[in-house]
């Protein structure tokens, strides 16, 4: 499998050169990064070149790298100990000023050669990310790009009908951004007095959800596991004169 992957990587290097830079991935996968200015040209060649022929765009998804690597759970040690997970705050990676925050990742399939490829492009702009639309290369990009626009706020230049696809028409913000609160900004309920659905500020206090931790639990006491099993209880002696009753 690795030899096959390297053969594909060689063909890509011969045809795309420095326009597509390979980055680390699993041994059975190929991942490339392309500059925003080269996105359409590289995507078109990946589709049309007879040695590549990636005819199908399987998926396109936005990625927000804000606080990349930050974790709130100590999962490995907590799971091994048998106790509930506790919160821990790892600082992660802080984005440097001017560095890109959003990216779009495309999953490609070549039916002709039975091969797959991952393509990533960084978006221009940190708060208002922009990248070229690939609807003209793969028609399936239409709904994928609308989804990334809706959930991440990524604007795709040249998209024929860029509008929300999952959230409500009046929804404010982009819910998959890392700085969007988990509880949202507003909550929706039906008001019987007004006879309609109303929006109002959410009344949930933002916090890190910490599950209940069992502090006293003898099931995990090492002394209990090393102790010898209790001796069986002796059978009670029959009551005096019980044998002759009847």
Helix content: 10-25%
| Average pLDDT level | 83
Low-confidence stretches: none
Q: Number of helical segments? A: 5
Q: How many DSSP-defined strands?
A: 9
- What characterizes the major β-sheet? 5 strands, mixed
Oligomerization state of this entry?
single chain
Q: Tell me the span between the first and last alpha carbons.
A: 84 Å
Strand order of the biggest β-sheet: 1-2-5-4-3
Class by helix and strand content? alpha/beta
Shape call = extended
What is the radius of gyration? 29 Å
User: What letter string, H or E per element, gives the SSE order?
Assistant: HEEHEHEEEHEEEH
Strand fraction: 15-25%
Characterization of the model:
With 246 residues, the protein is an alpha/beta fold. Helix content is 20%, strand content 21%. It has five helices and nine strands, in the order H-E-E-H-E-H-E-E-E-H-E-E-E-H. It has helices at 2-16, 39-48, 75-81, 141-152, 222-226; strands spanning 20-22, 31-34, 56-64, 102-110, 115-122, 130-132, 155-157, 186-191, 196-201. It has a five-stranded mixed beta sheet with strand order 1-2-5-4-3. A two-stranded parallel ribbon has the order 6-7. The chain has a two-stranded antiparallel sheet with strand order 8-9.
């Amino acid at each position: 499998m690795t030899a096959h992957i390297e053969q594909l990587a060689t063909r890509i290097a011969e045809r795309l050169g420095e326009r597509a830079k390979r980055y680390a991935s699993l041994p059975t996968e190929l991942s490339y990064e392309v500059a925003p200015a080269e996105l359409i040209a590289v995507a078109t060649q990946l589709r049309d070149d007879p040695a590549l022929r990636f005819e199908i765009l399987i998926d396109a998804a936005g990625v927000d790298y804000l606080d990349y690597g930050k974790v709130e759970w100590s999962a490995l040690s907590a799971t091994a100990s048998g106790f509930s997970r506790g919160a821990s705050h790892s600082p992660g990676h802080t984005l440097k000023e001017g560095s890109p925050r959003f990216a779009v990742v495309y999953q490609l399939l070549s039916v002709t050669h039975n091969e797959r490829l991952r393509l990533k492009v960084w978006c221009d702009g940190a708060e208002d990310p922009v990248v070229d639309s690939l609807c003209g290369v793969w028609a399936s990009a239409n709904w994928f790009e609308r989804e990334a626009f809706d959930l991440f706020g990524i604007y795709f230049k040249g998209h024929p009908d860029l509008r929300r696809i999952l959230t409500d028409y009046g929804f404010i913000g982009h819910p998959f951004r890392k700085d969007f609160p988990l509880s949202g900004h507003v909550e929706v309920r039906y008001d019987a007095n007004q006879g309609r659905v109303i929006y109002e500020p959410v009344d949930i206090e933002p916090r890190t959800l910490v599950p209940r931790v069992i502090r006293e639990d003898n099931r995990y006491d090492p002394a209990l596991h090393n102790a010898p099993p209790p001796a069986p209880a002796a059978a009670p002696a029959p009551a005096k004169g019980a044998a002759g009753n009847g």
